[in-house]
From TrEMBL:
SUPFAM superfamilies: L domain-like, RNI-like. Residues 280-487 form the Disease resistance R13L4/SHOC-2-like LRR domain. The lineage of its organism: Eukaryota, Viridiplantae, Streptophyta, Embryophyta, Tracheophyta. Residues 35-74 form the Leucine-rich repeat-containing N-terminal plant-type domain. This is Uncharacterized protein.
Length: 882
């Protein structure tokens, strides 16, 4: 009875407890959204462009707007509290999908959302419009994310009314070099302020020191100048501060204010001149929480402690690259063995041997000692870096053999030991446990591969650089096992062999291939090339020009033994689908006349067919190549007049477009007759004119005085006569530019004996020769590359964007010569498709470049190396030692 009573009591207690819990945790009934707010959202949608249909669920047919995608509501009252309108990630999850960006106009209907506290419009494209001023009236906003949304103009003053705002991100926009408005310093609740790469300039306002609650402040990659305000030292709770990569005129008179940032964890002062701070090491080592320290380009010259022991207790990332230490690597780095994950000492004027003590950094994942003057052997102790993923030792004076201990680095993904004096074999034992290796570069070293013909490597490379090292004379069969390769550079590597049967199909997935300057044999007549860029220059290939898939953008197959009619290649049905931008087939045995199939090559920018056996006239259909910037046809047997017009194409509106693109005109050593066309004056960007050794007659057209960018001129050995037109350009060249024209006179040649009647000028744009139906001028081959290094110059101007540049700079002449516009867009587009561990980030927009945060500098260095090498492939100097 007692047991039964106890059982009933327990059941009763359980029942009441369960009832209470159910009532307590009962879910609130869903409340539909406010009708007024629903209509406000629909109005917002109507003002936006939405190519990706991101707002497809926003429909009047679906009554509850709280269930729409990218909308969050308060479930209790049914009011919209959050709008997540950023661009989505692409299929790889690595980049934001720029084809699906929202744009258009942001409607003031947002003001109807009275409870909105979170607004994210990042990674969209608002076409350089201004940030809407009415956002300053949305008093409940706590989180405003406008990063990389293509806003411009100064920040509107009403934004300062958002006194409750805690998070403000404006990075990667373009504020037209405006100063930071001082009213940001009155937004006292801000915890996060990011103005990275937003094109601000002027002084950093001292009012920012009033934001006592600030935890995150990023002002990097702008153009600030003047003294860093010491008031920033008032931000005692600041955990993240980056002032790096601003103008050379941003400076700190001392670092005392930094010592007040007791909570700092990330400190970036890159490109700020700190050479006067003798005790910088002691100052930086006193922060108990400091984990990331970035001091590249700071003009530092001392790595040796001047006052006692250096004690970084929590440092994980140390970047001291691009400084001027001019001494050996100190041993105190080994004191960081329990914490340090990344150490970057690239291009810091270090000398002496690599100390064995670096092998004590047992947690190190990234080590960059490249581009210094380090000598001696690679220490065996580096084999103790069991966590290392990236090891860059390139461009030093290291000698000796590669230690076998490097083959024990099971986590190693990138190894670059190129441009050193290392000797001896690279054998299978060096790779025994390198199963994660994806990038290997041993280029420009005396090393030689010594592996069995049936060797199967444990790794799958994405990048292989072995140019100017010894991997021949036989074709390396182990390459066939590499299924992930996208970039293979083996120029000048001693291969003297026939291309194996498997090779041409195997390279179909490789994007960049360089086999130049070997002695590789094979008939390429019946192959189909699929790689994006190929350099087959200076080998022993024969047969007709190969067929091209639509993927091929660049082919350099110069200096071989190719033969056949050029028209067969131009008119091949498969080739008509091409996207080719670069073709260099010079110094071969190609023959025949150009055909009207030129019109199928609409993407061509650079065409070099010099030193072949071509004949006939230049067809008028070349006028359809509106992108062509450089055409090199020297040393052939091309005849006829230089086309003075494209009359047949004038209705297409192509004349001015074609002429305005050409920068280099080289038709030397042919059989051209007639006059230099008057219309040459329309070619405003011409930089070089070479008409050497033809049969041109008549006078130099007066229109040439309109040219203002000429840096090279060669009209010698023709039949030109009359007075050289007067201009600041034509008289700046010496007499050699005009020699071999006995009847030509005037400065810089001897004065004309009889003052001639000024020639009747033909108006620019009027035809001079009615029987020739063409007015397309042809340029020399260096025109195509200029654009590339113009962009690469931007890429490498900032510290983080320069990692690959050190390896490929031959000299200033190559630097100017090796340039190309189209490869920049190609390279940057490819960054998002290589399945690398990249964080989400913006991409470059050409011609205006958006700055990029390089969190993964090792990956970016690999990508940049690829871009720089593309230029070498176009030039044909990929095998030259940097």
């Amino acid at each position: 009875m007692g047991a039964s009573f106890a059982t009933h009591m327990l059941l009763l207690i359980w029942f009441f407890t369960a009832t209470f819990c159910l009532s307590f945790f009962k879910a609130e009934p869903h409340v539909s959204c406010n009708e007024k707010e629903k209509q406000a959202l629909l109005t917002l949608k109507r003002g936006l462009t939405d190519p990706g249909n991101l707002l497809s669920s926003w429909s009047s047919d679906q009554e509850d707007c709280c269930r729409w995608e990218r909308v969050r509501c308060d479930n209790k009252i049914g009011r919209v509290t959050e709008l997540h309108l950023s661009s989505p990630l692409d299929a790889d999850g690595l980049w934001f999908d720029y084809k699906k960006r929202l744009g258009g106009e942001i409607s003031p209907s947002l003001l109807e959302l009275g409870f909105l506290n979170y607004l994210n419009l990042s990674f969209n494209d608002f076409s350089l419009s201004h940030i809407p001023s009415f956002l300053g009236s949305m008093g409940n906003l706590r989180h405003l994310d406008l990063r990389d949304a293509n806003f411009s103009r100064p920040i509107p003053h009403p934004l300062g009314n958002l006194s409750g705002l805690r998070y403000l991100d404006l990075r990667w926009n373009d504020f037209n070099r405006a100063p930071i408005p001082s009213f940001l310093g009155s937004m006292g609740n801000l915890r996060h302020l990011d103005l990275h790469g937003a094109n601000f300039s002027g002084l950093i306002p001292h009012q920012l020191g009033n934001l006592s609650g600030l935890r995150y402040l990023d002002l990097s990659f702008n153009d600030f100048s003047g003294l860093i305000p010491h008031q920033l030292g008032n931000l005692s709770g600041l955990q993240y501060l980056d002032l790096g990569y601003n103008s050379d005129h941003l400076y700190a008179d001392n670092l005392r204010w930094i010592s007040q940032l007791s909570s700092i964890q990330y400190l970036g002062l890159s490109s700020i001149d700190l050479h006067k701070e003798v005790h910088w090491l002691q100052i930086m080592s006193k922060f108990p929480s400091l984990s990331d320290l970035h001091l590249s380009y700071c003009q530092l010259d001392n790595l040796n402690p001047s006052l006692g022991f250096i004690n970084f207790t929590s440092l994980r990332v140390l970047d001291l690259s691009e400084n001027h230490f001019n001494h050996e690597i100190p041993n105190w780095f080994s004191n960081l063995s329990t914490t340090l994950l990344q150490l970057d000492l690239m291009s810091s004027s270090l000398k002496g041997e690599i100390p064995e003590s670096l092998g004590k950094l047992k947690h190190l994942e990234f080590l960059d000692l490249s581009s210094n003057s380090l000598n001696g052997p690679i220490p065996q102790s580096l084999g103790n870096l069991s966590e290392i993923q990236t090891l860059f030792l390139a461009q030093n004076q290291l000698n000796g053999t590669i230690p076998q201990s490097l083959g024990l680095l099971t986590n190693l993904e990138q190894l670059d030991i190129s441009n050193n004096f290392l000797i001896g074999p690279v054998d299978e034992e060096h790779f025994t446990k390198l199963s994660k290796l994806r990038s290997l570069d041993i280029s420009h070293t005396p090393l030689f591969f010594n592996v069995n013909s049936n060797w199967v490597p444990p790794f799958q490379l994405q990048y292989a650089g072995m140019s100017s090292s010894k991997i021949g004379p036989k074709f390396p069969t182990w390459l066939q096992t590499q299924k992930s390769l996208r970039l293979l550079l083996i120029s000048d590597s001693g291969i003297s062999d026939k291309v194996p049967d498997w090779f041409w199909n195997w390279i179909s997935n490789i994007e960049v291939l360089d086999l130049s300057s070997n002695r590789i044999q094979g008939d390429v007549s019946d192959i189909v090339l699929n790689s994006t860029f190929l350099n087959l220059r200076s080998n022993h290939f024969k047969g007709h020009l190969p067929q091209l898939s639509a993927n091929v953008q660049g082919l350099n197959i110069a200096n071989n033994s190719l033969s056949g009619q050029i028209s067969t290649f131009l008119c091949h049905t498969m080739n008509r689908k091409n996207k080719l931008e670069v073709l260099d087939a010079s110094n071969n045995l190609l023959s025949g006349e150009f055909s009207h199939c030129c019109r199928y090559w609409q993407s061509l920018i650079h065409l070099n067919l010099g030193s072949n056996n071509l004949s006939g006239k230049i067809p008028y259909s070349m006028g359809s190549l509106v992108e062509l910037q450089s055409l090199r046809l020297q040393n052939n047997s091309i005849s006829g007049d230089i086309p003075s017009s494209l009359k047949m194409c004038s209705s297409l509106g192509l004349i001015d477009i074609v002429l305005s693109e050409l920068r280099f005109l080289n038709l030397s050593q042919n059989h051209l007759t007639g006059k230099i066309p008057e219309k040459i004056g329309n070619m405003k960007v011409l930089e070089s004119v070479d008409l050497l050794q033809n049969h041109l007659s008549g006078e130099i057209p007066p229109s040439m005085s309109n040219l203002t960018f000429l840096s090279q001129l060669n009209l010698s050995y023709n039949n030109l006569s009359g007075k050289i037109p007067s201009s600041t350009q034509l008289q700046s060249f010496d007499a050699l530019s005009y020699t071999g024209n006995p009847q030509l006179c005037g400065d810089p040649l001897p004065k004309c004996t009889v003052e001639e009647k000024p020639p009747k000028r033909t108006p620019i744009g009027k035809t001079e020769d009615h029987f020739e139906n063409s007015n397309f001028y042809m340029g020399m081959g260096v025109g195509f590359p200029v654009g590339f290094w113009a962009i690469c110059g931007i890429l490498f101007f900032k510290r983080t964007w320069r990692h690959a540049y050190f390896k490929f700079l031959d000299d200033i002449q190559d630097w100017v010569y090796v340039t190309t516009v189209p490869n920049v867009n190609w390279f940057l587009e490819k960054l998002k498709s290589h399945h690398l561990s990249l964080p989400p980030r913006t991409k470059f927009q050409f011609p205006a470049l958006s700055p990029v945060m390089m969190e993964d500098k090792a990956t970016f260095r690999l990508e940049c190396k690829e871009a720089c090498y593309l230029a070498k492939i176009i030039q044909g100097n990929g095998s030259k030692k940097s």
